[in-house]
Specification:
alpha+beta; five-stranded antiparallel beta sheet
């Protein structure tokens, strides 16, 4: 299994009369997502505030499209969107990419890694503050290694809870 990343973005959240809006900025000051972030590749993304993960998600959509969906949801079908968007004016967004699956199923692998990352966060404190759902699957050592790699990116800051 090959996990690449993260690509790091700053997400600025501004409240508009009808709904909150967002702007992104990458490490180079660009307001654009990288080519990988706009691809259909499976992606795992971590939203953090003060280097502490508050949400872990996965998608095959472009990141801009996925964020727009999380911003525009209104409860239809039971999904109310990203609740963290109402609590912060700025968050960090790290995007990780799965290039080679362990199981032959990229989405199953990325979803398994997502659950393992959330489990590691829970082992070091509380569930991510705005995590609304998680799907658990049997994991292999490769999934747990990938999750540990992602968790190591946040562990020093999260340890200070």
């Amino acid at each position: 299994m090959k996990l690449a990343g993260p690509d790091h973005y700053r997400v600025s959240i501004a409240s508009a009369p009808s709904s909150p809006q967002f702007e992104i900025e990458d490490s180079h000051g660009s307001g654009k997502f990288s080519g990988r972030a706009t691809s259909k590749l499976p992606k795992l993304y971590v939203v953090s505030a003060g280097r502490r993960p508050i949400y872990v998600g996965i998608t095959r959509q472009s990141m801009r499209q996925r964020l727009r969906y999380g911003w525009s949801a209104n409860g239809k079908g039971g999904y109310y969107g990203y609740q963290w968007r109402h609590h912060f004016s700025e968050v960090s967004l790290d995007v990780w990419y799965l290039d080679a699956p362990a199981s032959g199923n990229l989405m199953l692998d990325i979803e398994t890694i997502e659950a393992e990352v959330v489990f590691l966060i829970r082992q070091h404190g509380q569930w991510p503050a705005f995590q609304t759902e998680i799907h658990f699957h049997p994991s292999k050592p490769a999934h747990r290694r990938a999750a540990a790699k992602i968790w190591s990116h946040y562990a020093p800051a999260a340890a200070g809870r």
